[in-house]
Write a structure and sequence with these properties.
3-stranded mixed sheet, Immunoglobulin-like, about 45% strand
Length: about 130
């Protein structure tokens, strides 16, 4: 089973925060089952630079703050590519191996750190079989 993950996020509601940007909590609107293949991209994944490669991270769900490391807790990383129109091509990023709530982050600027202004983050729920 393939699941298309679109990117949405909401700001956490408890300022004050220590940077210019509020913390972000990924909104998990997609649910899959352990063993399902998870994908990103497709016709709704727009506003990327054309013909670029982006690093995608799958991490346990958390509150994101500007500058947080993306790779430290990553369960999986992969690359996704945009087409000439700046649409992220549909890409398999992970086979769900355990139940829980996870975040999928597309690192827009490639620095390995969460960027409130640039990176895309979405949540996903994985249920046991």
């Amino acid at each position: 089973m393939f699941v298309l993950v679109l990117f949405t996020s909401v700001a956490a509601a408890d300022p004050p925060f220590g940077s210019d940007f509020p913390p972000v909590i990924a909104d998990a609107k997609t649910t899959v089952t352990v063993g399902d293949v998870v994908t990103v991209g497709g016709p709704m994944a727009v506003n990327f630079l054309p013909n670029e490669t982006y690093r995608v991270y799958v991490v346990p769900h958390r509150v994101w703050r500007d500058g947080d490391s993306l790779g430290e807790a990553a369960l999986a990383t992969s690359q996704a590519h945009s087409n000439a129109d700046g649409t992220l091509r549909k890409t398999t990023v992970w086979k769900a191996v355990r139940a829980g709530r996870f975040d999928i982050v597309v690192g827009y600027d490639g620095d390995g750190k969460f960027s409130f202004a640039l990176d895309s983050v979405d949540g996903i729920n994985v249920r046991a079989k």
